[in-house]
Amino acid sequence: MIESRMDIKSRIRNLEIIYKKHQLLTNSDLVIVEKRLEELKGELKCSRYR
Questions:
Q1: Which domain holds residue 19?
Q2: Burial (Cβ within 10 Å: 0-12, 13-18, ≥19) of residue 25
């Protein structure tokens, strides 16, 4: 399923909010969030060329 750019952007924003509150997370959670953030940013770049 192809997500719209707005969907991806809002998910990135949500992850960044979680990331900024990372004091509440353990290091392994942080790594997962960081990785997911990079994946979503990659998806966003790809969607520009569709």
A1: 5-48
A2: middle
* Separation of alpha carbons 46 and 43, rounded Å: 5
Does residue 9 carry a pLDDT above 70?
A: yes
Q: CA quadruple 13, 25, 35, 4: dihedral positive or negative?
A: negative
Place of tokens 């997911």: 36
Longest C-alpha distance within the chain, in Å? 37
Taking only the tens place, the pLDDT of each residue in 24-41 is: 666 777 788 788 888 888
CA distance 23 to 4: 31
Q: How many domains does the chain have?
A: 1
